[in-house]
Amino acid sequence: MLWRFAYRFDERQKVLALGAYPDVSLRQARRAADDARDLLEDGRDPCAERKSAKAKMLAADSKFRVVADEWFAARKIKWVETYSDRLRSRLDNDLMPDLGGRLLAAIAPVDILACIRKVEGRGAPEMARRFFQLAAACSDTGAQPVDARAIRLPVSPGR
């Protein structure tokens, strides 16, 4: 048996699952329903709040390597193979050694800037710009608490 809390939000009927019996007792289900009612009284959707909390928890547990790999895979289909291979190599050689195993929540703008400066220092300002875009993309998705505005984009001398 599944404990459920039925409610209306924005003129729509919704149902929030509270847990399965016997894993969740009647007392626990009632407390969860009371918490959901409190959210409704504050004008917040309990289902949306649960999804948001889950997304934040997943983001906090995500490592840079996972997000970078997802970013790469999503864009790889648009690129020619030689470019894709070159970018993958650069990701693996320039970013992954310093950031790959770190949790996103633990990466600060200064860490990303250090990687960008390293790439810029070897004479690859365009690749440094792309790495900056990756950092900004992670920030835009909410997966990374780095404010992209806190990182100054490297400017190549020829532009």
What does this structure look like?
This protein has 159 residues and is mainly alpha-helical. It has helices spanning 26-41, 46-61, 64-76, 81-99, 109-121, 125-140; strands at residues 2-9, 12-20. It folds into two domains: 2-60, no CATH class; 62-150, Orthogonal Bundle (DNA polymerase, domain 1), CATH 1.10.150.130. The protein contains six helices and two strands, in the order E-E-H-H-H-H-H-H. It has a two-stranded antiparallel sheet. Helix 4 crosses helix 5 (109-121) and helix 5 packs antiparallel against helix 6. The longest helix is centred in the middle third of the chain and has 19 residues, at 81-99.
What percentage of amino acids are in beta strands? Answer: 5-15%
Q: Helix fraction?
A: 55-70%
| Secondary-structure class | mainly alpha
- Low-confidence runs: 140-151
Mean pLDDT: 81
Mind describing the biggest β-sheet?
2 strands, antiparallel
The CATH architecture name of the largest domain reads: Orthogonal Bundle
- Biggest sheet strand order reads 1-2
* CATH topology descriptor of the largest domain: DNA polymerase, domain 1
**What gyration radius follows from the Cα positions, in whole Å?**
22 Å
Query: Looking at the structure, what is the overall shape?
Result: elongated
**Gap between N and C termini:** 65 Å
Number of strands: 2
The CATH homologous superfamily of the largest domain is called: Tyrosine recombinase, N-terminal domain
How do the helices and strands follow one another from N- to C-terminus? Answer: EEHHHHHH
Count of the separate structural domains: 2
CATH secondary-structure class of the largest domain: Mainly Alpha
Count up the helices.
6
